[in-house]
Design goal:
- By secondary structure, the chain is α+β, with helices and mostly antiparallel strands.
- The chain is 27% helix and 25% strand.
- A three-stranded antiparallel beta sheet has the order 2-1-3, covered by helices on one side.
- The longest helix is centred in the middle third of the chain and has 10 residues.
- The mean pLDDT is 89.
Length: 75
């Protein structure tokens, strides 16, 4: 059941698609999930938009991290 977006901060996850050196770096923003839900789904390997073999670089909460990671990883 989705929650209202007004009180949940966005959860930002930055990941590489695989453990290879030339793997693409991607960012996914979840506006209706909190960190605990994202971590639980990552452990199960069933997080939409993130492959099960992905290498997680950062997991953060807040809008400021979206622009920060876009700049840092040139996404």
């Amino acid at each position: 059941m989705p929650r209202e977006k007004s009180y949940v901060y966005p959860t930002v996850i930055v990941f590489k698609t695989s453990n290879r050196s030339n793997a693409k770096t991607k960012m996914k923003v979840y506006k209706t999930r909190n960190v605990d839900e994202v971590i639980n789904d990552l452990e199960k390997g069933k997080l939409p938009g993130v492959p099960s073999k992905a290498e997680i670089l950062h997991l953060s909460i807040g809008k400021s991290f979206i622009s920060r990671y876009k700049e840092k990883y040139a996404i």
